[in-house]
Design goal:
CATH architecture of the largest domain: Up-down Bundle
Strand order of the largest sheet: 2-1-3
Order of helices and strands: EEHEHHHHHHHHHHHHHHH
Largest sheet: 3 strands, antiparallel
Structural class: mainly alpha
Oligomer: single chain
Radius of gyration: 28 Å
CATH superfamily of the largest domain: Type II secretion system (T2SS), domain F
Distance between the termini: 93 Å
Helix content: over 70%
CATH class of the largest domain: Mainly Alpha
Strand content: 5-15%
Number of helices: 16
Number of strands: 3
Number of domains: 3
Length: 403
Amino acid sequence: MPVFTYQGTNKAGTKVTGERTANTKDELKASLRREQINVSKLSEKGKEFSIPSFGSGVDSKELAIFTRQFSVMIDAGLPLVQCLEILAGQQENKTFQKILNGTRASVEGGTTLSAAMKQYDKVFDALYYNMVEAGETGGILDTILQRLSSYIEKNVKLKRAVKSAMIYPVAVLGIAGAVIILLLWKVVPIFITLFNGLGVDLPLPTRIVIMMSNFIGSIYGLLILVFFVGIVFALKFWYGTPQGRYAIDSVLLKLPLIGILLRKIAVARFTRTLGTLISSGVPILEGLDITARTSGNAVVERAITATRKAVEAGRSLVDPLKETDVFPGMVTQMIGVGEQTGAMDAMLQKIADFYEDEVDAAVKDLLTAMEPIMIVVLGVVVGGIVISMYLPLFSLIGKLAGH
């Protein structure tokens, strides 16, 4: 039986490490979950440096469509196993098809649907299988699946808004960088040869561009490129550690424009997730635990974990949230009203709706603000390089015209 090493945090939030024997990684994960240990790293001893797998192979859109179809079929009265069999047969994604067939086989063997889905926690996360478990317990699986599909669809919309905010500026800056490097690397040297043949005096802007071109074409340019690539990989590795993730997420939340957008996204995700869990009958402490793990931001995760500890100690939800200084005053006030009126789930959904609209507006404002700035910067840099190359020619033409 293989030996696995693991790292994670226990119920109190303390870091724990150790070694365990188990038949598979999934079996050990399930065992540690029962002990309320949230696993952050798990590897077979002696194979710690094996190539990692990237993602689950199933995107959120596919999961949303599956959940919506599943809810309709359950509501129509079809048996659970038959639903899974039909949906697996219709599934074009072979990875997802294999997972659904595995889930169906487990259910046929007498396992509950939530326990069967828990085996594939990279696709069906903690929020998903806990809500399914609540639906099975309360006999309202069709309703729970409808709520889940709505939640996933809104989460997909939120992710799309974030991508649209990032793809455009990244694409423009990437193309601009490639054009500038191409000009300095291939075009400017042609002008340098011409100027050397003519023997003209070069103005300061032209000399600066030529220095940049020589630098790009030299070994130092390659070393700088390697250095920046190394920095990116180092940051990515550091972000994989709890300290690095918290430090980088803290910086991101403090950035002038991006920080405001990320904070709104975090609030929308927190309120939507917690509201969906509470309305589905998941206990508040378990709901906060799941919400912390699916928050997507280390600062928000730590704030929710601290709030959960305070609630577990007997305090209300609103006061610990205020003390974190992460959530806006309006959010904590509305949650406070929800606590007092007993309509917490409805209030959280209203906050989520409001902040999702705010995210859409913030994305549009960000793109509107960045577009002219990027165009001006690109025009100045590329135009400056081109003009600086023609300045000596203008000077030479002026001298010839004077003769």
